Q: What sequence folds into this?
């Protein structure tokens, strides 16, 4: 994969940074001339991943969240959201639709389902006590002309 | 994020403007619940036409308010959602629980 351009954004795990992360992704992707729908899909997927890091990764604690966005050759977007939080013991269970460990906070358990449906590829790597890395890829439509 | 709740001809309408994410949902939840508990409206419509972004935090927000309204003898309706918000609503299957118009 040839990288045309990339950006890295490191933020503390404050919930107010969920919108900051979306704004960074939107600004960076202006160069890729996305459709409204593509940009909305990516913004939503990024918001879910960053929220997971804030709510679950750093539950009861705080730390840094690293967001990487790459524009790849062939109109493909690569996104990585990394935290150094508590990690996930059972990734398969965490990815099941409607599974949540925070029902009292009204978490719907749909974060990974949204990431999965709004991108083309989703991978989750996690180590309990070390943190979680979520990577997503989305191929963009090739505009006519 | 901005919220105004009015009583329009006996029906409560909550107009939401801005972005719904985990951060903003907390405040919306508090304000909506305060209204529901104090006024116990038989019907509440959440007008989403001014919402420019919503992730799955919005689903949790809608489900929670729907549950509370039901406990207070009322029902919830979602109206005016933009296409990109409808995609999240559809994915969640929330249409089986809450009326979406």
A:
């Amino acid at each position: 994969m040839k990288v045309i351009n990339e950006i890295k954004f490191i933020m503390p795990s404050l919930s107010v940074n969920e919108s900051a992360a979306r704004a960074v992704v939107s600004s960076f992707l202006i160069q890729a001339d996305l459709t409204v729908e593509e940009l909305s899909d990516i913004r939503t997927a990024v918001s879910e991943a960053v929220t997971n890091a804030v709510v679950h990764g750093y539950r009861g604690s705080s730390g840094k969240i690293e967001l990487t966005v790459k524009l790849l050759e062939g109109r493909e977007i690569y996104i990585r959201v990394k935290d150094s939080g508590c990690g996930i013991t059972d990734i398969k269970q965490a990815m099941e639709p409607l599974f949540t460990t925070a029902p009292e906070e009204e978490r719907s358990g749909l974060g990974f389902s949204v990431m999965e449906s709004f991108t083309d590829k989703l991978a989750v790597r996690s180590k309990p006590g070390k943190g979680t890395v979520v990577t997503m890829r989305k191929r963009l439509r090739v505009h006519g002309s | 994020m901005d919220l105004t709740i009015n009583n329009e001809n006996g029906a409560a309408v909550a107009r939401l403007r801005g972005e719904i994410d985990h951060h903003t949902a907390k405040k919306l939840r508090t304000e909506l619940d305060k209204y529901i508990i104090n006024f116990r409206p038989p019907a509440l419509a959440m007008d989403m036409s001014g919402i420019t972004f919503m992730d799955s935090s919005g689903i949790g927000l809608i489900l929670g308010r729907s549950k509370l309204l039901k406990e207070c003898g009322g029902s919830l309706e979602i109206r005016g959602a933009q296409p990109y918000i409808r995609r999240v609503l559809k994915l969640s299957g929330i249409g089986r629980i809450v009326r979406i118009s």
